[in-house]
Amino acid sequence: MLSFTFGGKNSYEDYGIVIAKRPNLPSPKRRVHYMDIPGRHGRVHYDENTYEDITIVVECGLIDTENLVERLDTIKAWLFNAGESDLIFSFSEDKKYIAQVVNAIDFTQVYKYTSSFPIIFNCHPFKYAVQNQLITLNTSGELINNPGTLESEPVIYVYGNGDILLNINDQSIGLNGTQGKIILNSEIQDCYDDAMNNLNSKMVGELPLLKSGENIISWTGNVTKLEVLPNWRWL
Predict the structure, then answer these.
(1) Checking CA distances to 10, which of 75, 140, 190, 231 falls within 20 to 30 Å?
(2) Domain Siphovirus-type tail component RIFT-related: where (predicted)?
């Protein structure tokens, strides 16, 4: 039985909704701009190295029509009130999309037993690992393997004091005057402490990415440990 989980609720177990057929899961479109220049052969292109959102259409059916009107109201409330939430399909339970329902849902009753309807999800471009667990590094020079197909945007918690130089592969990030803990959040492009105080002025360099495959992480300075929330992702 195909189903999906959205906003912490399962379509079949909580609402009696089944997926009529396995949905198409499109790849995101890369943002590339093309320009025609007079007197020059071909076209010049500029690659932003970013991707557009994707749309997933899920054809659903409702088997039991008992108290149908009330159930449909409950289903619509669930889908729309969840806002932007994790979307996980039963046929790929280790990956998730970050999605939001964007269509007005119309229910079509077929015979007297089934109500069918599409659900349209607008999703961020990538799939993410459902299990996004912290990785703790206690020794400089350890390896982290990225199982995804893209660079990930990690959140790195650096525990230490004073001036620290953090190295990830060939990239170096300087941290000046660290006091106990500093957080490097590549996902939102920000550096801060536990109280959310902005510490970008203490960082020198670019926020780090973890490439697909092996990543070596080392440091110099007074570092107690690193914790990495990896945010693995796939096209």
Answers:
(1) 231
(2) 24-123
| pTM of the model as a whole | 0.85
Classify residue 179 as exposed, middle or buried by CB count within 10 Å of its CB (0-12, 13-18, 19+). Answer: exposed
Residue 82 phi, psi dihedral angles, 5° rounding? -70, -20
| Three-state SS at 67 | coil
pLDDT, tens digit, for every residue of 75-108? 889 999 999 999 999 999 999 999 999 876 665 5
Q: What are phi and psi of 159, to 5 degrees?
A: -105, 120
Domain boundaries, the chain: 4-127, 135-234
Cα-Cα-Cα-Cα torsion 90, 96, 98, 104, nearest 10 degrees, comes to -10
Question: Across the chain, how many H-helices and E-strands are there?
Answer: 2, 19
The domain at 4-127 falls in which architecture? Beta Barrel (2.40)
Q: Which residues contact 12 (CB under 8 A, 6 or more apart)?
A: 1, 3, 18
Query: Three-state SS for 181?
Result: strand
The architecture that CATH gives domain 135-234 is Sandwich (2.60)
**3-state DSSP call for residue 65?**
coil
Cβ atoms of residues 186 and 213 within 8 Å: no
Q: CB atoms < 10 A from the CB of 98, how many?
A: 17
Q: Which of 7, 25, 26 is nearest to 91 (CA)?
A: 25
Cα–Cα distance, 130 to 95 (Å, whole number) = 5
